[in-house]
Design goal:
The complex is a heterotetramer, with two copies of chain A and two copies of chain B. Chain A is α/β, with parallel strands linked by helices. Chain A is built from twelve helices and eight strands. In chain A, 59% of the residues are buried. The model of chain A is unreliable at 1-13 (pLDDT under 50). The chains are: A alpha/beta, B alpha/beta. The interface between C and D is large, with 45 and 46 residues.
C-alpha cells in the first residue's frame, strides 16, 4: 500500500518545497490570491448592479487552495477547476477580462455567452472547464492524463472536487479508473466544510476524506488548505510523483467556505461564529501577508504595489468587459456539430439568415477567440 | 385560508405538507431539502414540522437517492425525492429506467415514489439548469410523468403522484414557481394523473402543450383572437405519460388543425409522439398537417439573447398558428 | 480476400482493425475487450495486434469509460469504447448527454469518439440485455446515432463513425452479428453518416425502418409481393441522428403511404419523430396516415413466447401494410 | 474511525460464533451447500439439453460464501443476492422448483417468464432479486434498511457485490449513503479474483477490497470465503453490529470463481493451474466435510443421507419444472403499472383478447404465485 500522510507536517521530512521558491514566485502567489479576491469583489459589485447574468460564486477564504495548487503545475500540465477555483484559472492564464465577460454573458466571452460564470477552459493554456454535474470532470481528466501516458508526454493532470462531490458515482469511477491505469493525475478534495447547506458529517462517515486514498490504493495527503506554501508543497509532491510515473494522488485540503453557496445564499445554516473565526484567524491572504512581511522581510510597500496593480488590472478589465458586445441571437445556431457547422433556424423564425455564419474551430481548445475564427 | 392566492411553488409545498400529514409513510429525501428548505425553498418548513426522520438531507448521490427511494417503496413507504435541479436526473437514468420502471413488471415490487425537481428554462440557467428531460422518460414503460402549468394542478397532481402506486416523475417549472398563482379548491384537492385540461376553448385550431408554454400559448391565443379573429383552443396536457389520447383526439376532431408546442428540443421531443397518435387515429379529421413549435435542437445557451433565440416564444406560436389557420 | 463473405460482426471487427492500422490515435476501451476479445468477440485479436496501450480493459465503470473517452478526444485521440451490452449505456447517460454532447458547443472541445455495443432483442436476453436505447440519444443535440442492418454498412459506418469529429453512438444488433453476411467492397469502404439506403425499391407503399427489422420488413415485402401483388419500398435509415429527411420525403412522395417499423417500444420511439417530419413536410402527399409497427410499451420479457409477443414480427408488418394499402 | 480487521483470525478474540451452532444447524450448512451444487449441476445437464433459456451461471467453489452469510440472517432480515448467490437464496427459502422454472422460463415461474435465471425475489421470505446493471442493488438495499430504521424494526439488510461491481458508481453512492445514515446494512464484496475476464488487479489499485471500509468510515473485515463457519462468523458479527445500531459493515470474502463467467465461457484467460489448485485444495464443501467428519465426528452416512435427500429433492423439482407450462403470450401485457392493470395489445395483433387477464398483486413481494392471483 502506498504511504499515506495525514498532514504535510507529519510527512517524512521532505523539504518544504514552497520555501525553495524564489521571492519573485513567492510574490507571484500573493498576486494571484489578491487578484482572485479583488476580481470576485468586483463581480459582487457588478452583481449588485444586475450586470451579472445568473448566480455569482465566491471563493473567499479559499484562495490559497486554488492558487497554491495550480502554482505547482507546469505550463504544459492541465487542470480542471471548479466554481471555487477562479484562482487556479488565473494562475493558468485565464484573464480578468475573460472572467468578467463570462459573468456578463457577452458575445465575445470565452464561451460566446453559452455557458455560465467560470465554466470555460483552454487546452492550450492548460485548463478545461467544468460542467455543472458534480464529479464528471474526474473521468474526463482521467482521459486527458491517459493521453499523456499513452503518448509518453511529460505532463500531469489535476482535478478538483468538493467534499460534496466525493459522494458522486462519477468521482468514484473516475479516480478508481485512473488509479488502476496508473495515470499522472492529482485529485484534490477541497474540504470547505459544506456542500451547499450540507455539512461534511452528512456527506461521509469517514473520519477524513484523505482516508479514501486507501480504498483506491493511491497516495494520500491532507494539508492545511489556507497555508498557500503548504498547499503548494503538498501539490508539488503529488505532481512530482505523477510525473515520475507513480500514479494518482488524492489530496485533502482543509479550508472553509466563508460565503454562501452562491451570492444569494444567506448562510442561515452555517454557525456565524464559525465563519467569523475563520475570517479572523485563518484568512489565507492575511496569513500569507504575515509570512511575507515577517519571515520573508518583504516591504509593505511591495505588497501595496501589487494591490494597486491588481486594482488597475481589474478596473481596466471591467471597462473593457462592459464595453464588449452582447451575443447576436443567431450565434446560437453555430457549432453544435463540426458537421454541419450550423443548425438551421426553425421555419417560423422569419429572417434568421445564417448563411454567413461560417464555422467555428474546435480542435482541443475551450475558448472562443474571434481573431482565430472563420465566423463573420 | 380558502380563497387566498398562493404561488405554484407554495401549492407544491402545500401538497407535500398535506400528504405528509395524511400518511406517515410519506417522507422526503434530497440534497439540502432539510434546514435549508431546498435550493428553491419548496420544502421549507417541512423539516421543522416532520423532523429529520422524514425530511432527509442526503449526500450528493442521485443514484443512491433514487435507488433508496425504490427500496423504501418496496417496503411500503411513499418517498418523495428532490433532484436539486431536474437536470441531475440524468445521473439516475439507469436506476430509473432499468430498476424502478421495471420493478413491478419483472418482480412484482411496487415503487410508489415521486421524483420531483425544478425544470425548464427561460431563466438564464444555462445548459445544466434549464433542462426538460421528459422525452427520455416518456419513452420508458413503467414510469409516469406529469408537468403542471398551474398552481392548482401543481398541488392536485402532486397529491395524486404521491398516492399513485407507481413511480411518478414530477417536473416543476421553475419559471412558474413564483410567477403563477392560483386559489386552491377547498378540501382534499387531487387532480387525476392522465387527464388533460382545456385551458381555453376554441373552434378554429388547437394548441396542445404543457408547462410554461401553456402560458405562452394562452398569450398567443389572445393575440390571435384580437388580431386575427381566430378562436384557438389550448389543451394543457398536464400528464405526459400516460398521454390523454381522448382529450387530444377530441380537440383534433373539433378544430381539425393542431399545433403542438413544447419547450423541449424538437427532435425526439414528445410532439413527435403526439403527432403520430393524431395521425394514426384522426387522420381523416386533419385539415392541415400537425405543426410543431419547439426549442431548436441546441444545448440551451445562457446569454439572454441566445436563450431567447433557442426557446420557443409567443411570437413563434402566433406565426405558426397563422400558417396553420391559413392552410 | 475480396469477394469473401463475412458476418456483420466480422465486418465491424474489420473496420476497427483497419482504422487502428490507419490512425494511431484510434484506441479502444471497455470491459473484457482485451485478451477475452469482448463478450461477443467483436474485438478479438486486436489486443494481440495493437497491444495493451491501445486495447484497454477497464474496470466496470461506464461513467468513467465514457468520460475518459471524452477527455482523450479533447486531446486529439479517437477512442472507440464498448458497452458490454448497450443497455449499460444508461449508466453513462449523464456523461453522454450532459458532458459529451455539449462539449463542442459550450466549450469548443471536440469529442471524436465512438460508443458501440451489442443492442437489440429477439435473442431471449430479457429486459437488460435486449435494449434499443436510441430514442434517448436521438433526442440529444450534439450526438450522432447509427444503427446498421447489413454487414457492408456495419463496416462502412464504423469507419465513418471513427473518422467523425463528433461523438457517434454505434448500435450493433446482436441478432444480426452472426446471422447476416456480406461481401465487403474493395478498398477504403466508408459509408457516410446521415444517408439512408433503399433496401428494396417499390411503388405502392414504403416501409421506413432500421437494424434488425429491416430484415423483417424485407421478408414482409416479399410476402406482400407474392401474396398481394404489392410493390413495397423498404428504406433502411442506417443513421438515426441526423435523420435523412431527403430520403424519407422522397419515398413518401413516391408511394404516398408509409409504415414506420422499429423494434424499440412505441411511445416516444423514433417513429413519432419520423411521422412528425413527414406530416410537416409531405402532408399533401399522404394518401393514408403514417402507421407504426413497434414493440409494445413493456419492459422486454425473457421467455420466448413473451418476447415474441412484445416485439414486432414480420406478420405484424404484413398486416399493417395490408391495412395501409387498402386505405 | 471504526476498528478494522484484516482477517477474522486477527480479530479481537471474539468467540467463533460458528462453533456455537448446534449440530443440526451445522448439518444445515452442509445441506444448503450441497443443494446449491447439485442443483447447479442439474442445471448444467438441462442446459446441455437446451432446456435452459439463456445463459447459465455457476457458483462452483463459492457455495460457502453464499450459504454461510445468508445463514447469519434471521427470517425477518432481507438480502439481495447476485448471480452467484443461489446458495443465499436457497437458505432464504427459494425452492429448487422455482429456480428450475426460472431457468426454463416457465409461465408459473417466480417471474412468470419475465426475468432471467435467479433474478427474482420475495420480500416475505426476505430476498430481493438483482437486476443486471451491477451495483444497483446497493442503493436499493440502503432504502430497504432505511425503512427498517425509520420504523424501528429489528431487521437487517445484506447485499452482495462482486469485486468487479465495486467499480460502479452505484456501489459507491449506495454504501456511502448507507454509511452516512447509519443504516443496518451489511455489504459483502465477493472477491472471487475475476470479473468476467478481468482480474482484480485491473479492477482496483487497492491492496484489498476491505480497505474501502476506511474510505467509507464503516466497519470492515476480510475473511476466508471458502470456510463456511468463518463466513458465518464474520457475517454474524456484522449483522449483530447492524442490529445493535452500529451501522454499515463492508466484508470481503476471499474466494475463487472456478467456472467461467457463464457456462459458455471457456475461461481461456484463467490460469488452469489456479483453477485446479482451488479445486484440489480449497473446495468449500470438501473442506467442510472434513470439519464435520474430523472435528464434529459426524458419520459419513449422515452426509450420504443428506446427499441422497438433495438428489431426491432436485429430481422431484426437475420433474415438476419440466411439467410446468410455458407462459401464455398475452401474459406479457399484464402489470407494467398498477393502474392500468394491463397494456392494450397493438391493433395489428388480431385476436389478442386480454379482457380476462385480471390484475396482479404487487405490494412488496417479488414472486408470482398463481394461488394468490386474481388472474385467470
Ligand atoms: C450531480 C449533481 N448533483 C447536484 C448538484 C447541485 N449542486 C451544485 S453545487 C452543490 C454543492 C457542492 O458542494 P461541494 O462539492 O462541497 O463544493 P463547494 O461548493 O463546497 O465548493 C450541489 C449539491 C450538482 N451540481 N451536480
Ligand atoms: C453496469 C454493468 N456493466 C457491465 C455489466 C456486464 N457484466 C455482467 S457480470 C460482469 C462481471 C462481474 O464481475 P464481478 O462483479 O466480480 O462478479 P462475479 O461474476 O465475479 O461474481 C460484467 C462486466 C453489468 N452487468 N453491469
Ligand atoms: Mg464543499
Ligand atoms: Mg468477481
Amino acid at each position: 500500500m502506498p504511504p499515506r500522510r495525514r498532514r504535510a507536517a507529519e510527512g517524512p521530512g521532505s523539504p518544504h518545497l514552497g520555501e525553495l521558491l524564489d521571492l519573485e514566485r513567492k510574490l507571484g502567489l500573493y498576486y494571484w490570491m489578491r487578484l482572485t479576491r479583488t476580481l470576485e469583489e468586483r463581480l459582487v459589485a457588478l452583481y449588485r448592479q444586475t450586470k451579472v447574468v445568473g448566480g455569482l460564486f465566491r471563493s473567499l477564504g479559499q484562495e490559497a487552495d486554488a492558487v497554491g495548487s495550480a502554482f505547482a503545475l507546469e505550463r504544459r500540465d492541465i487542470l480542471s477547476p471548479l466554481i471555487r477555483n477562479l484562482g487556479s484559472m488565473l494562475v493558468k492564464g485565464a484573464t480578468p477580462l475573460e472572467i468578467l465577460k463570462q459573468y456578463m454573458a457577452r458575445g465575445d466571452s470565452p464561451t460566446r455567452g453559452r455557458e455560465l460564470n467560470i465554466h470555460f477552459g483552454d487546452t492550450d493554456r492548460g485548463f478545461i472547464g467544468q460542467i455543472s454535474p458534480l464529479g464528471d470532470m474526474v473521468p474526463v481528466m482521467a482521459g486527458v492524463t491517459m493521453t499523456f501516458k499513452m503518448r509518453g508526454e511529460d505532463r500531469v493532470g489535476l482535478v478538483y472536487v468538493g467534499d460534496g462531490a466525493t459522494s458522486t458515482g462519477a468521482f468514484h469511477e473516475g479516480i478508481n479508473f485512473a488509479a488502476v491505469q496508473g495515470l499522472p493525475l492529482v485529485v484534490i478534495v477541497e474540504n470547505n466544510g459544506w456542500a451547499y447547506s450540507t455539512p461534511t458529517s452528512k456527506q461521509t462517515a469517514a473520519a477524513q476524506f484523505v482516508d479514501k486514498a486507501i480504498g483506491y490504493g493511491v497516495y494520500g495527503e491532507q494539508v492545511d488548505g489556507n497555508d498557500v506554501l503548504a498547499v503548494y508543497d503538498c501539490t508539488k509532491r503529488a505532481v512530482d510523483r505523477a510525473r515520475a510515473g507513480e500514479g494518482v494522488s488524492l489530496l485533502e485540503f482543509m479550508t472553509y467556505r466563508r460565503k454562501g453557496h452562491a451570492e444569494h445564499d444567506n448562510q442561515s445554516y452555517q454557525p456565524p461564529a464559525e465563519i467569523e473565526r475563520w475570517a479572523a484567524e485563518n484568512d489565507p491572504i492575511d496569513r500569507y501577508v504575515r509570512v511575507l512581511l515577517d519571515r520573508e522581510k518583504v516591504e509593505q510597500s511591495a505588497l501595496d504595489a501589487i494591490d494597486a496593480r491588481v486594482v488597475r488590472e481589474v478596473d481596466a478589465a471591467t471597462d473593457a468587459a462592459e464595453a464588449s458586445p452582447m451575443p447576436h441571437p443567431h450565434d446560437a445556431l453555430l457549432g453544435v456539430y463540426a458537421d454541419p457547422p450550423a443548425e438551421r433556424p426553425l421555419w417560423y423564425r422569419e429572417g434568421a439568415d445564417v448563411s454567413g455564419l461560417g464555422r467555428e474551430r474546435a480542435e482541443g481548445w475551450g475558448t472562443w477567440d474571434a481573431s482565430k475564427q472563420e465566423t463573420r | 385560508m380558502a380563497g387566498t392566492e398562493i404561488t405554484y411553488l407554495e401549492a407544491i409545498r402545500e401538497a407535500l405538507d398535506e400528504e405528509m400529514a395524511r400518511d406517515e409513510n410519506v417522507f422526503m429525501m434530497g440534497e439540502d431539502i432539510g434546514a435549508f428548505g431546498g435550493a428553491f425553498k419548496v420544502t421549507e418548513g417541512l423539516l421543522a414540522r416532520y423532523g429529520e426522520q422524514r425530511v432527509i438531507d442526503t449526500p450528493i448521490s442521485e443514484i443512491a437517492i433514487v435507488g433508496a427511494a425504490a427500496g423504501a417503496g418496496h417496503m411500503g413507504m411513499r418517498p418523495v425525492v428532490e433532484m436539486q435541479f431536474i437536470d441531475f436526473i440524468a445521473n439516475a437514468y439507469d436506476m430509473l429506467t432499468n430498476y424502478v420502471a421495471t420493478a413491478r413488471y419483472r418482480a412484482f415490487l411496487p415503487c410508489p415514489m415521486v421524483v420531483r425537481g425544478p425544470s425548464g428554462g427561460y431563466v438564464r440557467g444555462g445548459p445544466f439548469h434549464s433542462q426538460n428531460p421528459e422525452a427520455g422518460f416518456i419513452h420508458t414503460p413503467g414510469l409516469k410523468v406529469v408537468y403542471p402549468a398551474t398552481a392548482e394542478d401543481a398541488k392536485g397532481l402532486m397529491k395524486a403522484a404521491i398516492r399513485d402506486d407507481d413511480c411518478v416523475l414530477f417536473f416543476e417549472h421553475k419559471y412558474l414557481y413564483r410567477r403563477i398563482k392560483g386559489v386552491m379548491p377547498a378540501g382534499d384537492h387531487v387532480v387525476p394523473i392522465g387527464k388533460a385540461r382545456t385551458a381555453r376553448e376554441g373552434t378554429d385550431l388547437s394548441i396542445i402543450t404543457y408547462a410554461a408554454t401553456v402560458h405562452k400559448a394562452l398569450e398567443a391565443a389572445q393575440r390571435l383572437a384580437a388580431e386575427d379573429g381566430l378562436s384557438v383552443e389550448v389543451i394543457d396536457l398536464r400528464t405526459l405519460s400516460p398521454l390523454d389520447d381522448e382529450a387530444i383526439f377530441a380537440t383534433v376532431r373539433k378544430t381539425n388543425r393542431v399545433l403542438v408546442v413544447h419547450e423541449d428540443t424538437r427532435t425526439g421531443g414528445i410532439a413527435g409522439e403526439i403527432t403520430a397518435r393524431i395521425n394514426e387515429s384522426c387522420f381523416a379529421h386533419l385539415d392541415a398537417p400537425v405543426l410543431r413549435v419547439t426549442a431548436h435542437d441546441i444545448p440551451l445557451p445562457y446569454a439572454p439573447a441566445l436563450e431567447d433565440f433557442v426557446l420557443p416564444q409567443t411570437d413563434d406560436i402566433v406565426l405558426a398558428a397563422r400558417r396553420l389557420a391559413a392552410w
